[in-house]
Amino acid sequence: MRTLGRIAYWLAAIVLLAAILMSLDYTLVQAVLLGLVFCPCSLALEYLMPKARKPMDKIYLSLAVVVAVILLIVVLHYSVLATIIDGGMGHSGKEVSPMLINPAFLGLILTALSLGDYAWTRWLDKRYKSKDRNITFFSDRKSVTLNMADIAYIESNDTEVRIITVTGESYRNKTGISQWENLLGEDFLRIHRSYLVNINHISSADTDAVSVGSASLPVSRKYREAVSLVLKTSE
Prior knowledge:
Layout: H1 2-22, H2 28-48, H3 55-79, H4 103-127, E1 134-139, E2 142-147, E3 151-156, E4 161-165, E5 170-173, H5 177-184, E6 188-192, E7 195-198, E8 202-205, E9 209-212, E10 215-218, H6 221-234
Antiparallel strand pairs: 1-2, 3-4, 3-7, 4-5, 6-7, 8-9, 9-10
């Protein structure tokens, strides 16, 4: 259901984008094709942004994605749209609409799509709890599938993360802990730059540490207030 929900979101996004692009004098087919360009670029922005830890890295990433969109639009416009002529109406490859090479306009569209997908995914995570969901990842070059409810916590050491299960199994993975935080949803709580824990497996907690199984994990000052709020709400 979660996957179907995300597919529905992107289909709706393409329809909305097509409506906006048709107002720029593109035909329906042309508008849909151009709208498809934004989807992978928005997803790239959404998933890569958590990996950019420094403010300048985030700026460079945003600029790179906007430039990529412009290049894709220009290539699509002159290589594909130029051959699509709907009764002589609409754009037929003569020129790109100025709005589609305007960085501010493109940035607004990409940001709206990324934030919309993030908020929608969070809602789906809340609606369909992790106990009913599996996640697949690679560990030591092997594909591993786990039920999210079986993950106790995740530990990061900058170059890789360890996924620890409730039975004590450990898996290594190269995906950053911030991206794991986005993937796993609201049942998982960030307590430290290096730790992400399943709140359903916290046996005890105080201002400095939480216990998950036999492990005692530190709570950093940055996350202390959020940890206290979430744990108080879940009681």
